Amino acid sequence: MAQRNSSAHHDIPTLEKARTGIAGLDQISGGGLPKGRTTIVCGGPGCGKTMLGLEFLVRGATQFNEPGVLVAFEETPEEMARNVASLGFDLKDLAERKKLSLDFVYVEPSEIQETGEYDLEGLFIRLQHAVDSVGAKRVMLDTLEALFSGFSNPGILRAEIRRLFRWLKEKGLTSMVTAEKGEGTLTRHGLEEYVSDCVILLDHRITEQISTRRMRIVKYRGTKHGADEYPFLIDEHGMSLLPVTSMELQHKVSNQRVPTGVPDLDNMLERKGYFRGSSVLMTGAAGCGKTILAASFAEAACKRGERCLFIGFEESMDQITRNMKSVGINFEPWIKKGLLIHRAWRPTQYGMEMHLLRIHQLIEKYEPSNVIIDPITNLITASTEKDVHSMLMRLMDFLKEKGVTSVFTSLSNVGEIAESEVGISSLIDTWVLLRYTELFGKRHRGLFVLKARGMAHSTQLREMLITSQGIKLGPAAALLAYRDREREPQLDHQAALPKSVRSKGNRRTAALTRRSSRGAR
Amino acid sequence: MKKNSQEPAACADNHFQLRLYVAGQTPKSVAALSNLRRICATHLDGRYRIEVIDLMKNPQLAQGDQILAIPTLVRNLPKPIRKIIGDLSDTERVLIGLDLRGLQVSKANKNAGA
After folding, report:
1. Contact A7/A27 with Cβ under 8 angstroms?
2. 3-class SS of residue A390
3. pLDDT digits over A30-64, tens only?
4. Does B55 contact A122 at a Cβ distance shorter than 8 Å?
5. What is the DSSP letter of A457?
6. Minimal CA–CA distance to A408: which of A419, A424, A390?
7. Which residues of A touch B86 (CB under 8 A)?
């Protein structure tokens, strides 16, 4: 919250803004839409123009005590009410409570004959009447361009639209006008010529069969605003938008430490663990224990009474709960207590932006102190590497801003540091690398801390043992060979032992040879 | 509007019920009303009734007839509803809009024949 307030310092105080209440939009616009002025919202069909306008009105009426007027040219208020009922907006109720005035303007060119001079005073009178009836501060016209099909005299129409925009401004109404996107122009009929205060462009794109909605503030006179394209989502809470790259590197850092959930690993990190609010990356090949390491952290967080959000792209909640039990980590009580929130969905289920938005929403909803994402590499299956990087970057920024300690797991090839990790490594504070070491015919899990910003960490490669009581770290790997020779001669890796120990009879040797050749196949 | 009920339903057949929407005494509104009166007197021969609605005084009435343009003439009867916008200065188009064009032409033809 502190960070949010500080970002408000950058606003230019001279221009008054009307908050939309739409998550993210107020951030990228530096506080909302220009108060008492008109904003044009343009975009192709189905990109969410009407939704944006309605939410602007409804939130204005319900959250900011600014009643509104909706003038609909294309849909009847009944249709609109039905459309937004799924978002929890009750237009009828708002209209009955005099918070909203709904007027449906029906233009049917076939019914109208034009003879001589006219103007659109009727529209002005209706607007004025609607504004007066609820004491409106906000107006939405959806979509004004329907007029162009209703009246054949473009000269009159343009003059009247110009007059309408002037009128809205004179009345000090914060207005939103929707318009269809034209070819090569922002709006089909060039409405942007009349309104120069604020223009918002919405877009709905399908990339690799996954759709993403985006918003861009094309123009916002007299104010600093985010100029990028911001993905947005329309779901049961209405519209939400990710102000993705607007974050500045200003997050406050904590000196507090949080245990890793593995005491031996804590010891490697100055005996204290990770920094609170830092981001931790765990990479390694398949099956080397990344999820267990992450789960250990989650369990430790829950034991401290902190909330932890666990997002899985691989395993369902039941599966992970069952699997973790085998290593002595029991999620069930924490899930019941509400401390552990596990959500799993397929990486291919959404586009990158949707993933990000969904994660954002979960974080806003549950306000966890810790977040685990397991594994981030799966996201690449759903998108390009570049998109994944930018998404992760934004996510990490967001988590840091919130002071959330985050753990990401990432799959890499044996002993390799994957490209994808290099891309985000600069954002990572602590990087734990898991790898296999093959010694005398046995696969050993090794763990080392590749980097740990701001602390004197151990540089040893340790053996990682997964026991029924969780993860334990053995001595440095260089010692493993000696230890193995002494400790486990009775197990099946005798083939790796020195000749003198190995020769215990032909039958046994033959069995070993068979086994190893089977293994080789 | 209240006067509607007083009209005998039987004569609805060729009786014109016209409503002219204006917004104050603007030149366009004044022109529209005088043009309308002239056209009706010429072509409708007493089979009409004109109701003038000033939206400045009754703004709530704009919604019912879906009025945007001023002046707007609405032909409520005979059905179907027709709308003519503008100051009604183009008599030909007004006649087309009111569906009186056919009558006009046949009359003119009769005159020409005689």
Report:
1. yes
2. helix
3. 889 999 999 999 998 888 898 899 999 999 999 99
4. yes
5. B
6. A424
7. 114-118
What pairing do the DSSP bridges indicate for beta strands A340-344 and A405-411?
Answer: unpaired
Residue A233 DSSP label = E
Residue A290: name the closest of A258, A313, A273, A272 by CA.
A313
Partner-chain contact A122 B67, CB within 8 Å = yes
ipTM over 0.90: no
A189 three-class SS: coil
Contacts of B94 in chain A (CB under 8 A): 113, 115
SS3 call for A308: strand
Q: Distance between CA B39 and CA B67 in Å, rounded? A: 22
Q: Which fold has domain A18-109+120-241?
A: Rossmann fold (3.40.50)
CATH of the domain at B88: 3.40.30.10
Shortest Cα distance, chain B CAs vs residue A335, angstroms: 56
Structure tokens at B6: 């007083």
Could you list the residue range(s) of the whole structural domain that residue B68 is in?
14-107
Which range among A14-18, A223-227, B5-9, B74-78 shows the weakest confidence by mean pLDDT?
B5-9
Give the residue among A373, A465, A463, A464 at the shortest CA–CA distance from A410.
A373
Number of CB pairs, chain A paired with chain B, less than 8 A apart: 95
A257-485 CATH choice from 3.30.70.240, 3.40.50.300, 3.40.50.150, 3.40.50.10810: 3.40.50.300
| pLDDT (tens digit per residue) in A285-297 | 888 889 999 999 9
Does residue B26 form part of some domain?
Answer: yes
In contact, A481 and A465? CB cutoff 8 Å: no
Contacts of B70 in chain A (CB under 8 A): 118-122, 125
Other Cβ atoms closer than 10 A to A458: 16
What mean pLDDT comes out for the span A208-214?
Answer: 75
Domain tally for chain B? 1
Q: What is the DSSP string of B26-39?
A: -HHHHHHHHHHHHH
In B, which residues are within 8 Å of A112 by CB distance? 69, 83-85
Domain boundaries, chain A: 18-109+120-241, 257-485, 488-520
